[in-house]
Write a structure and sequence with these properties.
The complex is a heterodimer of chains A (72) and B (142).
Chain A: H1 3-33, H2 38-71
Chain B: H1 2-8, H2 13-38, H3 49-77, H4 84-105, H5 114-139
Helix pairs in contact in B: 2-3, 2-5, 4-5
Classes of the chains: A mainly alpha (72), B mainly alpha (142).
Chain lengths: 72, 142
């Protein structure tokens, strides 16, 4: 390969390394941040609300059963 | 401007800022390595000094552009009083970067200060990142 070709290759190689650094940093930081997808965040919220509702229902049923036992 | 920033990032201003700031901070470290090769402090067999310096300049232009975008996001979307260390480090970083560009393009008599300016830029990048993005990544979004 000619000297000019080698020089170009070295510069391109340096920039490819920079691009790889950018890709790795984005992957690591995005992994740390977690999802930012609105659909996924909504789904997480919905699952949390459903869990809370189920727990509240269970508590109410337990309270009712306790009151029935007291009344009976 | 605040609305534009929020629209472009689809409401994830902090997250986008954290990603961009982390990218430029990592590239700032790589820039120091490239310049160490450029100044002949490191002599890897696969990279010449001239080529490393050229890559350093090309990458530096991109880093400055992204840094300005992050700074604009910071100034338009967040309150100045949110982090004094971050605000001071960020302002100093922009000032030192501007001085470095002036020395490189028009004030060649001050060439001998370029390594010092370069190290200052790296330190200020690290401080600015640590006082905002690093803090956010370690401490979470609360």
């Amino acid at each position: 390969m000619s000297a000019a070709g080698q020089r170009t290759l070295q510069v391109v190689g340096s920039l490819v390394v920079a691009a790889a650094i950018v890709a790795v940093v984005i992957a690591v930081v995005m992994g740390q941040l977690g999802t930012t997808s609105v659909a996924e965040l909504d789904a997480v919220d919905e699952r949390r609300e459903q869990r809370i509702e189920r727990e509240e229902e269970r508590l109410e049923q337990r309270e009712e059963a306790r009151e029935e036992r007291r009344g009976g | 401007m605040e609305d534009l920033v929020a629209d472009v990032t689809r409401g994830n201003v902090t997250e986008v800022k954290v990603v961009l700031a982390s990218v430029v901070a990592a590239l700032a470290v790589y820039q120091v390595v490239l310049m160490a090769v450029g100044y002949g402090k490191l002599r890897p067999p696969f990279l010449g000094a001239g080529e490393a310096s050229f890559a350093h300049r090309a990458l530096g232009d991109a880093i400055v552009a992204v840094t300005v975008v992050v700074a604009v996001m910071c100034l338009t979307y967040f309150e100045l009083g949110d982090g004094t260390v971050h605000a001071v480090a960020g302002a100093l970083l922009l000032a030192v970067v501007a001085l470095k560009i002036v020395v490189l393009r028009w004030w060649r008599a001050m060439d001998r200060f370029l390594p010092l300016l370069g190290i200052s830029v790296l330190v200020l990048f690290a401080l600015t990142w640590a006082s905002s993005a690093g803090d956010f990544l370690v401490g979470g979004a609360e």
